[in-house]
Amino acid sequence: MPGFEVLYQAAALCLTYPDDGFRARLPLLREAAPPLREFTDHAARTPPGDLQAHYVEVFDFKNRHSLYLSWWSDGDTRRRGMSLVRFKELYRAHGLECTGEELPDFLPAVLEFTSRSGERGLLVEYRDALEQLRSRLTAYGTPYACVLDAVCATLPPATAGARR
């Protein structure tokens, strides 16, 4: 996975809520991760309030663009609880702890874990989910789609049976 660590960390930051800290990091993100420039350039020229409103519109109103990977395979079922435990156990096995308000399958958390650990297993395992999300973001017409394009380009192809 040489060279993808920076891309994964930058993608994680691009997929979190665009607060003031995000805005301050945009020049660094733009230079560190050229595959994300389409998104970082868009974010830089979009007024902060508009960017925040767009993030909420895209990711917070419906599960059609869910950033929670196990939601794509498990939905809101008991089985998802076991998947979340697995994420936490994998993080712990690599000396990392999932803290904060987000669930461990939150895509930015998975990308950060992958960046820090070098372990791409979760991204590969949830490749179909990433492809579904990428496809839906593209159809929605949001610049966030290019962040998923860049991440998906680093992974093996999705299986032929991926849902759209």
UniProtKB/TrEMBL annotation:
Q: Which residues form a coiled coil?
A: none
Entry keywords, A to Z: Nitrate assimilation
For this UniProt entry, the molecular function terms from Gene Ontology, in alphabetical order, are: metallochaperone activity; unfolded protein binding
Gene3D superfamilies registered for this protein in UniProt: TorD-like
Matching InterPro entries, A to Z? DMSO/NO3_reduct_chaperone (IPR020945), NO3_reductase_chaperone_NarJ (IPR003765), TorD-like_sf (IPR036411)
SUPFAM superfamilies named in the record: TorD-like
Recorded hits in Pfam families, A to Z, give: Nitrate_red_del (PF02613)
GO biological process terms on file: chaperone-mediated protein complex assembly; nitrate assimilation
NCBIfam families (alphabetical): narJ
What's this protein's name? Nitrate reductase molybdenum cofactor assembly chaperone
